[in-house]
Design goal:
The protein is mostly helical. 46% of the residues lie in helices and 0% in strands. The protein has a domain of 57 residues. It is elongated and about 60 Å long.
């Protein structure tokens, strides 16, 4: 059994028949499993709800050589995975 499968947890979802049929159609067209399509959708939804860091670069650091406010656009925030 691969490490990826071992890291996942089984769960149950409820969806109406029309939605499941659309998801099955997508899976068939892309040559992947229904589970993969559902995981991708869940991941996209989870990414949308992550908060944006708004305090980075608000003010000057007061230290020479530190240009945090100027470099804020270069910085990225990645929260720890819940998995």
């Amino acid at each position: 059994m691969s490490a990826i499968i071992m890291a996942m947890r089984r769960t149950t979802i409820m969806a109406d028949d029309a939605l499941l049929e659309r998801l099955r159609s997508i899976a068939h067209e892309e040559g992947v499993s229904l589970a993969e399509v559902i995981r991708e959708g869940m991941e996209l939804r989870a990414q949308r709800s992550r908060p944006t860091v708004t305090f980075v670069g608000i003010g000057r650091s007061g230290r020479k050589g530190h240009r945090t406010s100027e470099r804020a656009g270069e910085m990225s925030f990645e929260p720890r995975s819940w998995r």
